[in-house]
Design goal:
single chain, alpha+beta, three-stranded antiparallel β-sheet
Length: 280
């Protein structure tokens, strides 16, 4: 099933799609699709943007992204030369309009509600991973049963949301391409100074129009978004490059003032960079 920006065509007559992606990097264009996706990542790590929030992903993650929630994976090909993801795609009406409305499946309401912001599963992951390992050898009926088992496990698991705000309107292809260009530019150039004029030009908009456009769709300013990208990348360097000083990491992630870096880091992570490093 080929994924295009903001569209995900479903093979004809298939209510549930099981897909395995194994590449050097995951599909790195901002996109959304009507299907909910439940993904297990055996290999690969990098940055994941869901709705308004920047997250990291790593091996053995179980991630759930709701229907029409904009998201993009940015693989770290240096840390992991191969990225692999196993995904189940389905929607609320895949098995009939009222299938999930029957009393026996009432527990799935919580699953669908939480999926609207996306979620990372923190407990019962070994059991869920075991279910994913069964999928390749199963027929379609068995795969549907496995999906229901996974959903049941998720509803009994500890989870954390992947975003705090999701723009409710479905993006058009043009909007998707514009936001994709902005996200991609920020993720690739975060270590360099980025001016409002520069990023507005990437979006092909005036400065004022871009500010309104971005804030409406993410519930934050572009520079708030950029700081979050910089801090997430700083976290990776703090963990993976213990030989680098905090001041050097600050500079490499686009901060020209160590005091500002420390302040923003604590605002987002609840501790100083040095304290964060001591945890690993």
């Amino acid at each position: 099933m080929k994924v295009l920006p903001f569209k995900i065509p479903k093979p004809r007559n298939e209510a549930l799609v099981y897909q395995v992606d194994r590449e050097e990097a995951f599909y790195d264009q901002l996109h959304q699709h009507g299907e909910i996706q439940i993904s297990y990542i055996p290999q690969g790590e990098g940055t994941l943007i869901v709705g308004d929030s920047i997250n990291e992903y790593k091996p053995n993650d179980i991630l759930i992204i709701g229907g029409f929630v904009p998201h993009v994976f940015k693989s770290d090909t240096v840390a992991s030369p191969i990225s692999e993801m196993h995904t189940l795609f389905f929607d609320l009406h895949s098995f009939g309009k009222d299938f999930f409305e029957i009393a026996d499946l009432s527990l799935t309401k919580e699953f669908f509600k939480k999926s609207e912001l996306g979620m990372r599963v923190l407990s019962n992951t070994e059991q869920i991973i075991d279910k994913f390992h069964q999928l390749p050898s199963q027929n379609k009926v068995e795969q549907i049963a496995t999906l229901l088992n996974i959903m049941s496990l998720v509803t009994r698991s500890k989870t954390v949301p992947l975003s705090s705000f999701v723009y409710k309107k479905t993006f058009s292809d043009d909007e998707g391409k514009r936001m994709n260009n902005v996200y991609k530019y920020a993720m690739e150039q975060f270590g360099e100074p980025i001016s409002l004029e520069e990023i507005s030009s990437v979006a092909n908009m005036s400065r004022n129009a871009f500010c309104r456009y971005f804030k409406k769709r993410t519930n934050k300013t572009f520079f708030q978004f950029l700081i979050e990208i910089r801090i997430e990348n700083a976290c990776k360097l703090i963990i993976n490059k213990p030989e680098l000083s905090i001041s050097l990491i600050s500079e490499e992630c686009g901060f020209n003032n160590i005091a500002n870096f420390n302040r923003k880091f604590k605002e987002l992570k609840g501790c100083s960079p040095t304290q964060y490093r001591s945890r690993f």
